[in-house]
Design goal:
By secondary structure, the chain is an alpha/beta fold. Helix content is about 35%, strand content about 20%. The protein has 38 helices and 38 strands. The model has no long low-confidence stretch (mean pLDDT about 90).
Length: about 1050
């Protein structure tokens, strides 16, 4: 059937900030949906709170609202925009849940808005555990034996019917949030409590354990005419018990018999039909008992999911794009396959290669939490690789992770004796395949490993064959046939060099003398049955003797071209913001008629979508892959250069190798990059420009550090050299903390350690600027809301600055301009300053895009990354006619943290970054913009209730006026004895409450009893931090807003005041830019 003619405008709800369980895959799906619907002449209205996405670019939708994703905000947008329909399936669990709420509160009916993509009935049948089980029984499919409970009493009753271990799964949550595996009653009650609080309908499914079973996923698309296709089958390498988002996976499924696969295919289609999914993509998860072959259904997602992004990138089939068009009435046979441009979308994809996905973890940021995996997701991002066989694909994936390994290397925590390895093998830990490899080296058999881990024997046998090949080449001269055999099995040149003790130069000479080159294959959705119109490629060394370097339809062009290096897998410190910049680079090059070539390995991102760049290589971002692609692309046409400044630290680390191989870096030169990154060279530059910097030194030992501390005194900021996201960075206040820092596992004994004098109570400022080498434009000056000492990626900030003296801002602009000119920046530069006692100190210079670029771009309506790319390509800054005009509104960026996933971790922020994402609040006044940012981040400020206040001595003077203001607003105050006694001196009414160590009833009791609505708690010394740890943990558990700095607390009170006296307003970006 053709497109519906009764729809003229559609509202799309985004997923909000990047959090564990809901990452940038929804930027990819939302952006695809916006483009697909606009192509059909429909007005697209978008609401999302995340400024870091391509999706929230003002050009992506006709009306873009960066507002909190709440019923209140969305109702106002609906009333204003009057959309005909709401597409609920492109924003993950966030969009589904809010769509249900809008429907239940009759808001959609009130404004005559139709829910499309998935109806309320469909969402509830899939997401409500009880309804889903009932539906599966109806079509003869089994689910794990279990029951639904809505309170602790019902849960304890269920224990009489189900034996341990027990799996708990809350309804309507994402990434397994609130779920877990309970092996005893105490753990059962703990998980059930959390699950009930996190489920929007206070419902938890309690099931018999299927831990150890094999897990599979089927990605299915259905249209209104009942056409169904399987886009992709996915197999988890880790068994049930590890969340599918934390498991290494392969596509297609490799260990199913054809009979098993066909049954699963039919079952997944029947699941969609029974649940009632009429249009779009869905994901169905199965478990198979490896001993009996029994097949059960675990769950289904009636929306575009994390697996949809993986399946799309694995096959080339654009699921989100197709799903959006199906939602407005098209059928699969009416839509064309965008990769081949010949076959219809009803043609089921087939692939002739192996795809591997491995999740990326950052447990090192949360050292109070054991690195143990379970049914609640913990990974931050993921990488994807493609090869002609499993070994090639998997080894490329290890390289793509960017954890410092070039193959099956041994992490130091796995360098143990055989007995200790066997103990460790019983635990579900990150990167378990590396542990299995070490076990195989220690002669633990394949069968023994499989028995302990429940891994399928086929996968472990593949690992064993890799280890066998490793052992064959250890300290051996490598001849050409051996080298070729290693390459076919996925070995990197660096790994071959390590094992054989052969230099990389010798390996390079071996390749040249035998005219051996890498081959690039095409992802075409149809196993080469039809020619591909989209150059979407991966490398392989399989059958290179009989394969051309490029296939016919992806031959290298003779055009002018530029290579963009992406950011690799998401992790804390390097996230979606850098992908945003890379996508804008591709857009800019297209406008300049220069061929854009993207290299990246992240399946979740927009940059790896099939229609973003002219050519896409899904490859590891390492020396071997990047140099090979550069050389291949430079063999014809003209490679103008490689962009390294937009993908974060990953591409910058490759800049030296590019220069060494005579490949031009586009934009800021390598010498300038090195000058900014090298501590000693940079210090000389600062002295030359007569600029202030906190006193700083480089040391190599604890002994040297003590000498320096005697000179500059505590407190100091201490960190290893060359880190990302403030890794292992800490503010040290005394000798004990200094000693424990140097003897912790986080600090390598050989690394340079940087020590800076810490500027207590300073104000931090971030500046992003554009330059063509001669002229400089200050794109944005951001004032951090929290005091100095909190990583810039974690601090809330405002644009324009609200509390910085005009003369200081003027001086900062002057310093920025001088530095940019001195470094001959071409493109972007980010500089971090600290202001103390009206003196300006230079903290850090980054000769690249920063994570604040998308935020500034949305706040000011200037496509900064796109302009930066054009500057790198040689366009002069003056051509853009940029003016420094003031805005009549304020934008606030707030960070979002994963502390709910790491319950033992303290929430006090410091110089090491811990946030996973960000939101933006925008309004005509500062306090309301701040309020919006808090609502969007899930830190909803109360309008009434009890406030708990406990602050360090240095902050007590600051809370007098704040406490008086809270009392006037009608709040009742509670405080620990020190804070309460101080405030009573100023006639402020406050009730004293016990600290935890003073006995019951104490402050944590009040928090758990829901008697506290807001918390202000500042600490400094180790004792007070330890004393108040349980307060912050309880605040997270009970979703109570808390503030650990005075500056943020002041702003929160101002925000509450405004909130009580002014209604929340919504405006599109387009309205703000007028």
């Amino acid at each position: 059937m053709p497109k519906r003619d009764d729809l003229n405008s559609i509202l799309i709800i985004g997923a909000g900030p990047i959090i564990i369980g809901q990452a940038c895959e929804f930027d990819y799906s939302g952006a695809q949906a916006c483009k697909a619907l606009k192509e059909e002449g429909l007005k697209v209205i978008l609401v999302n709170s995340n400024p870091a996405t391509i999706m929230t670019d003002p050009d992506m939708a006709d009306s873009t609202y960066i507002e909190p994703i709440t019923v209140e905000s969305i109702e106002k947008i609906i009333k204003k925009e009057k959309p005909d329909a709401l597409l609920s399936t492109m924003g993950g669990q966030t969009a589904l849940n809010i769509s249900i709420e809008l429907e239940e509160k009759q808001i959609l009916a009130k404004y005559n808005v139709e829910l499309i993509g998935a109806t309320k009935e469909v969402i509830e049948k899939a997401e409500n555990r009880q309804l889903f089980k009932k539906s599966m029984r109806k079509i003869g499919l089994e689910t794990p034996r279990g029951t639904i409970v809505k309170n602790i009493s019902q849960g304890l009753h269920a224990l009489k019917k189900i034996s341990f271990p027990i799996i708990l799964r809350p309804s309507f949550t994402l990434g397994g949030a609130g779920g877990g595996v309970a092996k005893n009653k105490k753990k059962f009650i703990e998980i059930l409590n959390k699950g009930l609080s996190l489920s929007p309908i206070n419902e938890v499914l309690i099931e018999e354990s299927v831990i150890g079973w094999k897990e599979y996923e089927m990605e299915v698309v259905r249209d209104k005419n009942d056409n169904c296709i399987i886009v992709c089958s996915i197999e988890n390498i880790d068994p049930m018990g590890v969340h599918t988002g934390d498991s290494a996976t392969v596509a297609p499924a490799l260990t199913l018999t054809d009979k098993e696969y066909q049954k699963m295919r039919i079952d997944s289609i029947n699941v969609l039909k029974e649940i009632g999914v009429e249009t779009g993509g869905s994901n169905v998860q199965f478990a198979i008992n490896p001993k009996t072959g029994k097949n059960i259904v675990i769950e289904m997602n009636p929306r575009v999911s994390r697996s949809s992004a993986l399946a799309s990138k694995a096959t080339g089939f654009p699921i989100a794009r197709v799903a959006a068009k199906l939602a407005i009435g098209y059928t699969l046979d009416e839509l064309r396959n965008d990769i081949t441009e010949v076959i219809p979308a009803s043609f089921e994809p087939t692939i002739d290669y192996i795809v591997t996905k491995i999740p990326r973890f950052t447990f090192e940021k949360f050292n109070q939490t054991d690195a143990i995996l379970g049914t609640a997701m913990k990974s931050i991002g993921e990488c994807m690789s493609i090869g002609r066989n499993f070994k090639e694909s998997f080894q490329k994936a290890i390289r793509s992770l960017e954890i410092g390994f070039c193959g099956f290397e041994v992490p130091k925590e796995f360098k143990k004796n055989k007995q200790d390895l066997l103990k460790l093998l019983k635990k579900e830990i990150p990167y378990k395949f590396l542990l299995i490899a070490e076990c195989l080296r220690k002669k633990i058999t394949v069968k023994e490993i499989c028995k302990i881990t429940n891994y399928d024997e086929w996968f472990v046998q593949q690992f064993f064959e890799i280890i066998q090949l490793e052992e064959e080449i250890i300290n051996q001269n490598i001849d050409f046939e051996t080298y070729k055999h290693c390459k076919e099995n996925g070995f990197s040149d660096k790994r071959i060099s390590q094992l054989s003790n052969t230099t990389l130069n010798s390996i390079e000479n071996l390749k040249k003398s035998n005219k051996f080159h890498i081959c690039f294959k095409t992802i075409d959705t149809c196993s080469a049955e039809f020619p591909s119109k989209t150059p979407y490629m991966y490398s392989s060394f399989s059958n290179v003797d009989s394969s051309p370097q490029f296939e016919n339809e992806t031959q290298i062009s003779k055009r002018k071209k530029v290579i963009i290096l992406g950011g690799g897998p998401n992790r804390i410190g390097q996230g979606i913001e850098f992908d945003y910049c890379c996508v804008h680079a591709a857009f800019a090059l297209k406008e300049l008629n220069i061929e854009s070539i993207m290299i990246n390995c992240n399946p979740e991102t927009v940059s790896t979508d099939f229609d973003i760049s002219d050519r896409l290589y899904f490859e590891p971002l390492d020396h071997e892959s990047v140099i090979s692609i550069c050389n291949a692309e430079n063999s014809k046409g003209k490679l103008l250069g490689v962009i390294v400044q937009l993908g974060g630290q990953t591409p910058l680390k490759l800049s030296k190798a590019l220069v060494k191989n005579n490949i031009k870096i586009l934009g800021t030169s390598f010498n300038s990059i090195d000058l900014a990154e090298n501590r000693e060279k940079f210090k000389s530059l600062i002295n030359e420009l007569s600029l202030n910097q906190p006193e700083n030194y480089i040391v190599n030992s604890y002994k040297e550090a003590k000498k320096i501390i005697n000179k500059i005194k505590f407190p100091v900021v201490i960190r290893p050299s060359y880190v990302l996201g403030g890794r292992a960075m800490k503010i040290v206040y005394n000798s004990g903390e200094l000693e424990s820092y140097f003897f912790s596992e986080n600090v390598e004994s050989t690394s340079n350690i940087l020590i800076d004098k810490f500027l207590n109570d300073a104000k931090e400022i971030d500046v992003d600027a554009l330059s063509d080498g001669k002229d400089v434009y200050i794109a944005g000056i951001l004032e951090h809301i929290e005091e100095a000492g909190i990583h810039s990626g974690d601090s809330a900030c405002s644009l324009p600055p609200q509390n910085i003296d005009h003369n200081i801002i003027k001086e900062i602009k002057l310093i920025t301009t001088r530095i940019a000119k001195k470094l001959k920046i071409k493109g972007l530069i980010n500089i971090q300053f600290a202001v103390k006692d009206n003196s300006i100190f230079l903290i850090e210079v980054n000769p690249r895009a920063s994570r604040t670029v998308p935020f500034i771009a949305k706040a000011k309506g200037i496509p900064i990354a796109k302009i930066a790319t054009k500057l790198m390509a040689g366009i002069k800054l003056k051509k853009f006619k940029l003016i420094d005009k003031s805005t009549e509104y304020v934008s606030v960026k707030e960070s979002v943290f994963p502390f709910d996933r790491f319950p033992d971790e303290d929430t006090i922020l410091g110089p090491e970054m811990k946030s996973t994402g960000e939101v933006m609040g925008i309004d005509k006044n500062f306090p309301m913009a701040f309020v919006k940012s808090q609502i969007a981040s899930g830190n909803r400020l109360p309008k009434s209730g009890n406030v708990f206040i406990s602050v360090k001595d240095n902050d007590k003077e600051n809370i007098i006026l704040m406490s008086q203001m809270l009392s006037k607003l009608g709040f009742k105050l509670f405080g620990t004895s020190g804070t309460a006694n101080f405030l009573r001196k100023y006639c402020i009414e406050i009730q004293t409450v016990n600290k935890v160590r003073q006995g019951h009833p104490h402050i944590v009791d009040l928090i758990n009893d829901k008697k506290i609505s807001l918390i202000f708690n500042t600490t400094q010394d180790p004792k007070s931090v330890k004393d108040s740890h349980s307060i912050r943990i309880s605040a997270i558990k009970n979703k109570i807003p808390y503030f650990t700095t005075i500056s943020a607390a002041k702003l929160a009170i101002s925000g509450i005041n405004v909130m009580l006296n002014q209604p929340l307003d919504v405006k599109s970006l387009h309205e703000y830019y007028k």
